[in-house]
Amino acid sequence: MKKTIFLAIILCVNLACTADKSNKKITIKNLYSIEVPSGMTKTSAINSDASLQYQNLIKDEYIIVIDEPIAEFYNALEGSEVSQDLQGYYDIVVANLEMAASELHITDKEDIKINSLPAKLFTATAKVENYDVFYKYCVIEGQKNFYQILYWT
Predict the structure, then answer these.
(1) Which of 6, 30, 66, 151 meets the CB 3.0–4.6 Å disulfide criterion with 136?
(2) CA distance 38 to 32
(3) What is the mean pLDDT of residues 122-127?
């Protein structure tokens, strides 16, 4: 049975204030729901692994969600020293971010619950292709999937 996960993420870091502060709820594959700012538009050009991709090119804001079956993650880790839990998933996510960006600084890391599900939320700044990038990142352990929610500007 697929459980719908409702993820209400309000992006408080709105660098370019606009009069339109409403959100729209998006549901993906009956796996999860998320609210994104109504000024964002759907795209498929950001990340081929993402099940959700939205952007606001005028404000240079992007959000993606990647969902991955937990069993596949554990199978891929077989024989490695990475822990097979949310912490291990977080460690892999951060390692991948470190490979993609330079001058990575992670701050405000906290363990939280989203709809009773364990999650890790953190903020990061980095350089990507000579651009300064601000990230708000959340990794969540669902019943059957891990989820990555990544917002950046």
Answers:
(1) 151
(2) 18
(3) 93
What is the residue-wise DSSP string for the chain?
A: ----EEE-------SS--S---EEEEEETTTEEEEEETT-EE-SSS-TT-SEEEEETTTTEEEEEEEEEHHHHHHHHTTSSS-SSHHHHHHHHHHHHHHH-EEEEEEEEEEEEETTEEEEEEEEEEEETTEEEEEEEEEEE-SSEEEEEEEE-
Structure tokens at 16: 């370019």
pLDDT digits (tens, 9 = 90+) for 30-89: 889 999 999 999 999 999 999 999 999 999 999 999 999 999 988 887 778 888 899 999
| Tokens matching residue 72 | 């596949």
Strand 61-69 to 102-114 pairing:
unpaired
The structure tokens listed for 144 are 């059957």
In this structure, are residues 115 and 5 in contact, taking their beta carbons and an 8 Å threshold? yes
